Amino acid sequence: MSKPAFRYSHYDLKEQRAGTVIEITLSAIANVRLMNGSNFERFTETLKHQFLGGVAKKSPIRLTIPESGHWHLVVDMEGHNGQAESSVKIVDAAPAPRMQKAPQETSAGR
């Protein structure tokens, strides 16, 4: 298994619900990649992977978790000079799905 030739910061976001918003604060232009577990594994093996995000030219930026599951965030400097300090926080956790009560039938006129 080969590792990427550039340094990166990894944030294990654990299990997150769809709709959760994360905020990433950066000290410089950097690449931001939000990935599920299988794509993060592909990233670490320098294989083609999919992610949300891209080059972050301003800070802070916000990304929304697209589907419930285990998520990873990577901040890296591939293609950029220097090193960026970064931090991540959850700013809007998606509410848990609510169970809806089935409408009760009424027996009027008995």
TrEMBL record:
<dbReference type="InterPro" id="IPR036488">
    <property type="entry name" value="DUF1883-like_sf"/>
</dbReference>
<dbReference type="Pfam" id="PF08980">
    <property type="entry name" value="DUF1883"/>
</dbReference>
<dbReference type="InterPro" id="IPR015073">
    <property type="entry name" value="DUF1883"/>
</dbReference>
<feature type="domain" description="DUF1883">
    <location>
        <begin position="6"/>
        <end position="92"/>
    </location>
</feature>
<protein>
    <recommendedName>
        <fullName>DUF1883 domain-containing protein</fullName>
    </recommendedName>
</protein>
